[in-house]
What we know:
The chain folds into 2 domains: 5-128, no CATH class; 142-253, no CATH class. A 5-stranded antiparallel sheet has the order 5-6-7-9-8. The model has no long low-confidence stretch (mean pLDDT 91). It has helices spanning 8-14, 33-41, 93-112, 130-162, 199-207, 240-253, and strands at residues 5-6, 60-64, 67-73, 78-85, 166-170, 173-181, 187-195, 218-219, 231-238. The chain is an alpha+beta fold. A hairpin with a 2-residue loop joins strand 5 and strand 6. The protein contains 6 helices and 9 strands; from the N terminus they run E-H-H-E-E-E-H-H-E-E-E-H-E-E-H.
Amino acid sequence: MNPTRPTIRCLRGDLGIVKLPPARITLDELDHPLIRKASAQFAGDSARERIAAVDDNILFKVKIQRWRGAVWTDARCPWLVAAGRREDGSPDDFYAALAETAKNARKSYNASHTPPLTSDTYTDDLLPGALDEARLRLEDAERSVLRMEASVRALVTRSLLSGREQCEDLAGYTLAILIRADEGHETYVGVRIIGHVTIADQATILDAVPGCDRDSWYPDVMPHRDLESGEVVWSNLMDPPAAAALLAEAEGNAP
Length: 255
């Protein structure tokens, strides 16, 4: 199962983490003992203790040091939906307070909704909401960018080492890169994209090529070959020190 994610409401309201990290850091990676404990506890098939006083949703207990939490699971991952600290001499006061709040929430809900809830508690407001869905989409987009950047860098390095065009099939399109140094010691870069790629993704691909001025990319053709159907080619010149640094890095990582 995927690591446990805290909801944004839980992060800000219960854990006191008001400022969210950049989207390249997923919320399950945040360094907090309760988040780490929840991820470890729900990673496998270990025993789980349900919060019995909450009956409208299935919530489980997670405990570490003086921290107490409530975890709800869906098909994607476990979610840390509520958290608090245990007071001295009261081992489960957090869960009693959570149940009391949920019972009051049920009363408020029934006062303004028809038909009324038949459960004793109402905890839907704790579950992941629109902000959590938006954050997931943002993190997914950032992961896609990171994968794209890694693919571009790998293709650049392989072409530098081989002197030949290097190609990889990615999600919905093909990306190929050719690096070639001419007699004047200029390092030519050709980036070939076949398939549907947005202008924004094309810009991300070009920006990921090391040592190239982002304002110096021009539409082009690959040397000694015709364009294929649905293909776009961009070219630029790579800064020679950047090419040398990539080669040195590749040689340093070689087994």
